[in-house]
Amino acid sequence: MKRKRKDDAGSLDSLLDTITTVVGILIILLIVVQLGADSAVNRIVDERKKENADELMELAMKQFEDQKKTLLEEKKKIQLKLASENKEQAQLIQEISKLEKELAAKKKAMPPSPPKVQNLRQEKTKLDNDKKAIEVKVKKVKGLLSKASRPSQSLSKDVSLPDPKPAPPKAKPFRFLCRDGKIYPLDDQRLVGRVTQELQKAGIKPNKAKEYDGKKIISHFSKAKPGDPFFQAIPRIDGNKRVIFDLRKKPPAGEDEEALAKPGSRYLAALKGITPKTHYLQFEVFEDSFATYLAARELAGKRNFPAGWKPILRGPDTDCTLALWTINDLGRAALLASRPPPKPTGKPPPKKPPSNVLD
Fold first, then answer.
1. Beta bridge partners of 244
2. Residues 175, 318 within the same domain
């Protein structure tokens, strides 16, 4: 009986060992299976992620393309709308400008609005007061005039001009410009010498037809600015291809009616440089300087200078012209040759008045 119990215990231990071994194997298998399952799951998840990422990228690109297409269509609609609005705005601006011009023209054509009655009354009152004040002043002046002594001589100045007469034989003119209430000695001989000297200095020589390059003369004289203390010579080319030298006065150099009578005046100095036998005086008088001319003429008469005058009307840019008429521009000879000769009239040409007639 005892042996049987021992055998039973051994069988039970063997069973337990077997069960333990089986359980261990199962646990190992479970672990192995679990590890393989995790690896498979991770692999499946990674593959799914990649597929999902590709699908998401495709979906996003599709949505982007759809949005891009929609935005382009919207942009085109907006551009068309803006173009239409700009056209309408430009048309509106033109219509507004047209209406503004019409309104301004109508306002200009409208008669001025009549002043208010109150303003007219105030103006009338003011005029009445001014009238009364003037009447009082007139009465006072009349009273003073009645008491004042009458002058023995007339206050007006009578001016008598001599009869025209020829200049002394072989006498040369010496000109004076009277403008802006001042007198300017015009020494043609000295100014012609300055201009001729400047042409030689510039190296401007005439061609065989005795013609100069007028453009070079104008360019050189714009920098050189020759002249004397009273005038500056400014060349120009006239329609007959002549180089004319206009003279522009220097305002500080002129003398008014009061200054020219002083002992050290430039006018008297100019008279001292010439004599009545060699020169006669020629005054070119603008309308604003007749009184100055009369004062200068009186001083010249006391020194026995024969003199004459002529009224002048010129623009502000030219005061007078230099007596130098021999400088011709290029092409003058061809211009004169191209002109047809004058048609004979059968009448003798009228006699020209002498240039040296004095008043």
1. 236
2. yes
Q: What angle do CA 298, 302, 304 make, to 5 degrees?
A: 110
Q: Indicate whether 201 and 320 sit together in one domain.
A: yes
- Claim to verify: residue 254 and residue 174 sit in the same structural domain: yes
- Looking at 68, 103, 138, the residue that finishes a domain is 103
| Residues 276 and 198 grouped into a single domain | yes
Helix (H) or strand (E) holding 284: strand 279-285
Can you tell me the distance from the alpha carbon of 4 to that of 7, in angstroms, rounded to the nearest whole number?
5
The beta strands (E) that lie in the chain are given as 165-166, 172-179, 182-186, 211-212, 231-237, 243-249, 279-285, 307-311, 320-321, 328-329, 357-358
Dist CA 98 CA 93 (whole Å): 8
How big is the CA angle at 63 (ends 58 and 69), to the nearest 5 degrees?
Answer: 125
* Average pLDDT of every residue of the chain: 82
pLDDT, position 17:
76
Is there a single domain that holds both residue 184 and residue 97? no
- pLDDT reported for residue 1: 46
> pLDDT tens for residues 31-90?
767 776 667 667 766 766 667 767 777 777 888 788 878 888 887 788 777 767 677 777
Whose structure tokens read 């002046």?
A: 141
Residue 191 sits in which domain range? 166-339
The string of DSSP codes covering 98-138 is HHHHHHHHHHHHSPPPPPPHHHHHHHHHHHHHHHHHHHHHH
How many angstroms from the chain centroid is the CA of residue 182?
Answer: 32
pTM above 0.90, yes or no: no
Q: How far is the CA of 88 from the CAs of 76, 77, 93, 150, in angstroms?
A: 18, 16, 9, 85
Does some domain include residue 22?
A: yes
